[in-house]
Amino acid sequence: MVAKKRGTGPMSRSDYLFTSESVSEGHPDKVSDRISDAVVDTYLMAEPQARVACETLCTTNRIVLAGEVRGPEHITSQHLEDVVRGAVKDIGYEQAGFHWQKAAVEIHLHAQSVDIAQGVDAAGNKDEGAGDQGLMFGFACDETDVLMPAPIHFSHRILRSLAEARHSGAEPGLGPDSKSQVTLRYENGKPVAATSIVVSTQHDEKLSQEEVREIVRPHVVDVLPAGWMCPEDTFYVNPTGRFVIGGPDGDAGLTGRKIIVDTYGGAAPHGGGAFSGKDPTKVDRSAAYVTRYLAKNVVAAGLATKCQIQVAYAIGVSMPVSVYVDTLGTGEVDEDRLSLILQDMVNLSPRGIREHLALNRPIYARTAAYGHFGREPDADGGFSWEKTDLVPGLKSAFGAN
Question: How far is residue 27's CA from residue 382's CA, in Å, rounded to a whole number?
Fold first, then answer.
């Protein structure tokens, strides 16, 4: 049965402009995300079943961790302080107002609540439950080769290119803190060109705005498809004119404040829960990963050109209270049947998700910048939710070639 075609609001228009932004690993909020995820990795490396909910605050030469953990006692505050400093050093902060060696580090992590633990832990005939109530979305579309919306994909790639040049020493005048914003023109529902590009990047005080502009330019041109570069008068680089003071010295950072950057750049709904600092028993993280995985496989199988999936959970309950699959008017198959087949392929309980995607590994610090989605799966299991190994089964189920 062919899925019913239907409109989906403003995004169903065929001709429009759409904008997404990204922020670099050195953005204050991303520094916090990186530290929180480094803490998660530290616990999972020592104990794959550890529980972590770690929030980080960064400001001028001060870093504060708070939250709840359950894991090996040999992970001491001193151990965690070393992890924090290592994360900041890796990002590249050695400036007077934020330095990996000189910043004060406070650790305020305590044991996980027993009330939460009893709802989540498996016991007797009770399977492991969700760590909280909430709803999560996954999305995929055929706008790019990684099946991500084009504006967020190119926003991430511009900043990754700049960061690689900074880390390699090719562009020593750049600082860790940067942001990008890409506006694309869509015709007949497909992106065709950029209408404006904004890049703000921290830089050495000796560099002029024009010099920074010319450093940035090739990193934009090389990332965009040929002929997509925006007009010169809408290519904005450091529009305020100067960006020397950056990172947590210029603006405080907190874990979980860049959830749209982390996901689809506003091209799909978001359930509201952040990912960083949470171990994979938290469905805010694991269910968002598995819905991306399912949606990506649907599009990769050619069953739709767009797919959006929502799941919702109740705290302490193992299976989702709802699963909603929407191909946004682009599907070639019945969505109700597609939903049932997907749920048969992957157990959507917290335990089932973690086991299917092998999430109890120290693979999270690498997700903290440049998006959790649209990345290549790593040999050690990182970004396992980007695999397309369900495609053969989906094609077989629907008789597709």
Answer: 23
- The answer to whether 282 is a known catalytic residue is yes
Q: Select which of 85, 153, 278, 306 is catalytic.
A: 278
The reply to whether 383 belongs to the active site is no
Q: Please provide the DSSP assignment of 40-71 as one string.
A: HHHHHHH-TT-EEEEEEEEETTEEEEEEEEES
**Best CA proximity match to 17, nearest among 183, 149, 201:** 183
284 is catalytic: yes
One-letter amino acid at 238 equals: N
Instruction: For residue 206, indicate whether it is catalytic.
Output: no
User: Does residue 179 have an active-site annotation?
Assistant: yes
pLDDT at 115: 58
Confidence at 82, pLDDT banded by 50, 70, 90? very high
* Cα–Cα distance for residue pair 256/266, rounded to 1 Å: 16
Mark whether 251 is an active-site residue: yes
Alpha helices in 7-148 (DSSP H): 28-46, 77-91, 114-120
Q: What is the largest CA-CA distance in the chain?
A: 67
d(CA 123, CA 120) in angstroms, rounded, equals 9
Q: What is the pTM of this model?
A: 0.93
Q: Which tokens hold the place of 114?
A: 């027993």
